[in-house]
Amino acid sequence: MNIYDYPTLYDVLFSGSCKREVEFLKKTLRCYCNISGSGCGRIFEPACGTGRLLWRLAKLEHKVVGLDLNPNAIAFCNKRFKRHGLPESAILGDMTRFSLHDLRQKKPFDLAFNFISSFLHLTSETLAMSHLHAVAEVLKPNGIYLLGLHLLPKNNAACSSERGVARHGSLALQSQLRTLSFNRRKRLEIVEFRIKATSPKQHYEIVDTFPLRTYSLQQFRDLLKKVNRFDVLETFNFDFLPIQLNSQKEDVIFVLKKK
Ligand SMILES: C[S@@+](CC[C@H](N)C(=O)[O-])C[C@H]1O[C@@H](n2cnc3c(N)ncnc32)[C@H](O)[C@@H]1O
Questions:
Q1: How far is the CA of 18 from the centre of ligand 1 (A)?
Q2: pLDDT tens digits for 101-135?
Q3: How far is the CA of 241 from the centre of ligand 1 (A)?
Q4: Which residue's CA is minimally distant from atom 25 of ligand 1?
Q5: Domain of 24?
Q6: b/e per residue, 129-142, with b = 16+ CB within 10 A?
Q7: Do 180 and 237 have their domain in common?
């Protein structure tokens, strides 16, 4: 079972924070890209999933493009764009291998963003490097990449368990993300993601298991150094508050500026 094959459930589960995420993206455009108010921004989301943030940004008249490996997520995303009278700008593809041409664009982007640790789906250094190079290639000079990821705190195991609840009309969801195994040497964490869905007509459960690559702060810094395409301008926590990094910080959004 692939949890991302259920975009309706995914979208309900993760839509609670959209308003604050969009505000943060608007602030980023204003502060780092010199784009204020609505309109004019060129924004790209690799691993866009259902595009829960993209259609909201497109409604503000930004030019948006999304890329994802999952055909169900892309279909869901484009259907919503269409329903809102917006161009169907989600493209099926791999975030480790793409170009402006693949994204059907001539001009580079002001801003790219990637939240909810999607980057950790890239389970080797080669894939992670290839992703960062590809993003740098589609950004303007000085373009910004907002990369949010869960870091491994020093001396601790990976995240053990996280629960969530969400509701949309008569659909009620409960989710749990938990670590099944963790190998610090191989830098691999196997996680289980479980969603229980209840509506007046049915009750069902989806369970997916997948690997994620782990990063300590130092390992992520080493990767950025090796790729050598971005400078870190600032760092925020997942509540979008500025933070000073140290080896105990876990949830971090890096504001990366293309060199
Ligand atoms: C946690 S979801 C995040 C979706 C979206 N960014 C959001 O904030 O809601 C991770 C997404 O990464 C996608 N994904 C995983 N590996 C990928 C790859 N190599 N290329 C493109 N998308 C990928 C999955 O299909 C899934 O939609």
A1: 16
A2: 999 999 999 999 999 899 999 999 999 999 999 99
A3: 24
A4: 70
A5: 3-152+215-258
A6: bbbbebbbebbeee
A7: no
| pLDDT tens digits for range 55-81 | 999 999 999 999 999 999 999 999 999
pTM: 0.96
Q: Domain holding 126: CATH number?
A: 3.40.50.150
Of 14, 45, 69, the one to substitute when testing ligand 1's pocket (max ligand atoms within 8 A of C-beta) is: 69
Residues 41 and 96 grouped into a single domain:
yes
Q: Are residues 45 and 132 in the same domain?
A: yes
Q: Is the CB of 47 under 6 A from ligand 1?
A: yes
Ligand 1 atom 16 nearest Cα: 121
What's the chain's length in residues? 259
Q: Are residues 146 and 63 in the same domain?
A: yes
- Give the position, in ligand 1's atom list, of the atom nearest the Cα of 96: 19
Query: Is the same domain home to 127 and 167?
Result: no
The CATH number of the domain holding residue 185 is 2.20.25
| Interval between CA 200 and ligand 1 midpoint (Å) | 30
Number of domains into which the chain is organized: 2
Pairing of strands 139-150, 63-68: unpaired
Is the same domain home to 48 and 138?
A: yes
- Please give the full DSSP string across 105-124, using - where no structure is assigned: -SSPEEEEEE-TTGGGG--S
